[in-house]
Amino acid sequence: MKFEAVTIKDIAKALGLSTSTVSRALRDSHEISAETKQLVLECAEKLNYRPNPIALSLKEKRSRSIGVVVCEIANTFFSQVINGIESIAYDRGYNVIVSQSRESYEREVIDLQFLASRSVDGVIISLSTETTDLTHIKALHARGMPIVLFDRIHDDIDTHKVIVDNYRGAYDATEHFIKQGFKRIAALAGSEFLSITAERLAGYHDALKAHNISYSKEYVQHCFYGGMVFSEVEEAMNKLLTLKQKPDAVITTSDKLTTGCVKTLKRRGLDIPKDMALIGFSNSDIAELVDPPLTVIRQPAEEMGRAATELLLQLVESKRPVKDFEKRVLTPELLIRGSAIKS
């Protein structure tokens, strides 16, 4: 049996009123008496009537919905960002439609096309690892679609952006290793095309330089899909572990790379931190439950989601074109645990 939503006609039929009277009563029109309005509202509540969002969007020229595109909902960082987005959106009367690109440029394009076809009022997006061509985003932006970029951003689009201080996070992690006495510090990073990769590796490089430790290109391994494909992480770690001068510590630049690194070290029977110390960008609560507990650079993910939503709704609800845009930079936190303490 096909579901059919309750309509104004159903209320009118139940009360023996015209549909126009019911419509005006629901709009709180001065033409309708208080008694009739009360009858209509009570009947609407009894029948579980809800206004048709499509009709409302046509009338208000607003759908009261926003779209979100992330690479993977199952990723702890992104799920926390979505929590932050929803906490603001629902309080402001907006619904949230979430899509995931799975690190695919093609899927990202399709996701944005779908959201635009559903007339969302704006989009919050973190770019996929495959996205080097921004034509699809620029086209929507040029047509007036409010867009906010977060985490993985690009400076070619003039709009609000929300990021974490990736440079500082990686710098502090590298410096912690150095102060613990580690000398051969490697980095397991995502795609070279991503803004977060460049920023985190810059922090890593500059911390080494500040402490007069030579930078070695062979100590930096890239995983294009950022840990979503475990075999890619395993191959990168094997390259590090078979070097003549094997690293004694490694920084991983994302949640998936962190867990993939731990999995590889465990499979090879290596001890953390004795055989290799580890610090990872990670928001997973599992980090403090493993043995040893993992030292992590924790990002303020929910705060990032809230900030991105507030900035998006500024664009959506502004009565004038917004020309001044903000790049909001949030501060990560280095949580030191057993995986990065020299034994």
Automatic annotation (TrEMBL):
PANTHER family recorded: HTH-TYPE TRANSCRIPTIONAL REGULATOR GALS (PTHR30146:SF109), LACI-RELATED TRANSCRIPTIONAL REPRESSOR (PTHR30146)
Q: Which GO terms label this protein's molecular function in UniProt?
A: DNA-binding transcription factor activity; transcription cis-regulatory region binding
Q: Which InterPro entries match?
A: HTH_LacI, LacI/GalR-like_sensor, Lambda_DNA-bd_dom_sf, Peripla_BP_I
Among its keywords, does the record have Transcription? Answer: yes
| Record SMART domains | HTH_LACI (SM00354)
State the organism named in the record.
Lacibacter sediminis
Residues annotated as domain HTH lacI-type: 6-60
Name-wise, this protein is LacI family DNA-binding transcriptional regulator
User: Looking at the Swiss-Prot or TrEMBL record, what is one Pfam family this protein matches?
Assistant: LacI
Q: Which UniProt keywords apply?
A: DNA-binding, Transcription, Transcription regulation
Q: Which domain of life is it from?
A: Bacteria
Protein's UniProt keywords contain Transcription regulation: yes
